[in-house]
Amino acid sequence: MATRTSTQNVTTTVAQNAGQTRPTSLVVERTGPLALVEDAGRFGCRHLGVTQGGALDWISLGWANWLLGNAPDAAGIEIAIGGLALKAEQTIRLAIAGADLGATRDGEPLDANVSFTLEQGQVLAFDQPRAGLRAYLALPGGIDAEPFMGSLSTVAREQLGGLDGRGGGLQIGDRLSAAGHAAEIRDMPSVPPMPRDEAVLELVTGAQIAHFEGASLFAAFNQAWQVDSRADRMGVRLTGPELRCQLGGMISEGIPLGAVQVPPDGQPIILLNDRQTIGGYPRLGALSPIACAQLGQCAPGTTIRLSPVTPHQARTRYLRQLALWR
Amino acid sequence: MSQSLSPRLETVGMDALMVRLFDAIDEAHMPWILAADSALRERLGEALIDLVPSYTTLLVHYDVALLSQIEARKLIQDALQGLKPASNEAGREHRIPVWYDDSVGPELSRIAERLGVDTDDVVRRHTGRDYCAFALGFAPGYAFMGLVEEALGTPRLKTPRQRVPAGSVGIAERQTAIYPMRSPGGWNILGRTAIKLFDRERDEISLFRPGDRVRFEPISREAFIEQGGDTTPLEER
Question: Domain ranges in chain B?
Fold first, then answer.
């Protein structure tokens, strides 16, 4: 995994305009397949059956926020596949990061990872994926809406979060208000590209790995997997060699983010942010948080290779990523 | 039941460990799970992000900015040292009024038929004991409870329903549950309650927590309506 450096960042502090109190906002003019308010997720409530939610590619949400000087976990918009168009009601500073969805400002192409000003009346539009699947849009200070259990994250299945508080995606006519003002204007450092045809995902191996047959384990980490079309915010199916495990159905237990569970058909399902909180299939382990973010950008058909890592290795990389935003 | 435990601690991810206490479902295990729950919450403090107790396990999700996995293991082991089961009063008690009727619970008469008894007898059996909330999952506020008496145990529907209405009370194998919101589902439905299980306007957002004890009480259609219940029949599709 390539490391990111922040040494070449150019940071400019924007003079805060004390007189500017009117919230700046965007109006949804066109929707695509799915555009959701997401932050880092909802925590401290999984024992009540409430899932974590949050941006699938939390790294790209973090960068979009960083470009405006926001906290990395401030709420933004997760734009899956494209299609969304937003018009500025007032001039507003915005940032996008993550997938290249062919974003334009009044028809002029924008970079995939950039901070920019949308003048009053201008339209920010997303077309379709050129690299990656999900782009993240940050507003100054985040998005102004009522959090539920500490988070704005939208979970459709639970009817929780989002602008309406009921788990709905963005609709035509919705108004997105910034929660604050841009603290800074920054340029994007160089970051690893979006996965295109192939991705190597780090998997923290779990204790249940001992129950898988040796040949299955060899296959799991040495053969290629394909991202199936059955993929959403709950989980992503992989197709490839059939994995065999001596554990049958288990008593349901808590499921961590990125859990690679193997149902009886031997084809893994990687459980992501909107997963159910408990489940009863054996697991190879769990993808690292960085690998979960990468998987959120992998289109169906992408070739996946799983690379085993220890919790310590995964943690070191995770903390290094967080340190880039300090 | 032994009075000491030998918990197993398993790596399940970068920032998560599974505490495995038992190997089988048993209501007698819940006082131990609850005791482990409070000990872990206390010991991990602000390093704890989420703690998910289930039938035989507790999933500990901790903050890797504060703890390495080695440190987390040590804290968890310390917390579980000399653990004593929680008292029987540890979980809260709930009485849940249910309108048992074929229109809102189509499997009521199917189960009665299978057992060769009348539907009142099925209701008597279902309301005849306290159930323990083993775990919450599937949906916010959805508690997996049990165990129903052996004869009532019924496999899940072969084809799950697309829409099970909120408040539907069901059985799957020897477990029983209430659907907090309308959702797809494959449980055998016996009746419906007007009680809200998950209510964001309430202080206690989820009525149930793991380890709570629940008793169902049969009520009439009139009482159900009075409590604000929706009598719309369960759609068969």
Answer: 8-80, 93-226
Q: Are A204 and B59 a contacting pair at CB < 8 A?
A: no
Distance CA A183, CA A16 (A): 7
Q: Which CATH architecture has domain A198-323?
A: Beta Barrel (2.40)
pLDDT single digits (tens) A302-313: 999 999 999 999
Residue B1 confidence (pLDDT) above 70: no
The yes/no answer to whether this complex scores an ipTM above 0.85 is: yes
pLDDT digits (tens, 9 = 90+) for A161-204: 999 999 999 999 999 999 998 788 899 998 889 998 999 999 99
Provide the strand spans (E) within B79-236: 93-100, 131-136, 143-146, 161-164, 168-172, 175-178, 183-185, 188-192, 213-218
Determine the residue among B9, B12, B208 to mutate to test chain A binding: the one whose Cβ has the most chain A Cβ atoms within 10 Å.
Answer: B12
Query: HSE (CB half, 13 Å, CA atoms) of A81?
Result: 10
Q: Do A278 and B135 touch (CB under 8 A)?
A: yes
Q: CA–CA separation, A138 vs A103, rounded Å?
A: 14
Interacting residues of B132 by C-beta distance below 8 A, sequence separation 6+: B27, B30, B91, B145, B146, B211, B212, B213, B214
| CATH number 3.60.15.10 is the correct assignment for the domain at B8-80 | no
Q: Which of A177, A135, A212 shows the shortest CA–CA distance to A25?
A: A177
Whether B24 contacts chain A with CB within 8 A: yes
Architecture label for domain B93-226: Beta Barrel (2.40)
> CB neighbours (10 Å) of residue B5?
18
Question: Is the Cβ pair B54, A276 closer than 8 Å?
Answer: no
Contact B19, B36 (CB under 8 A): yes
Which residues, listed in sequence order, are joined to residue B144 by a DSSP beta bridge? B135
* Whether residue A248 has pLDDT greater than 90: no
Within 8 A of A261 by CB-CB distance, chain B residues are: none
pLDDT score for A213: 96
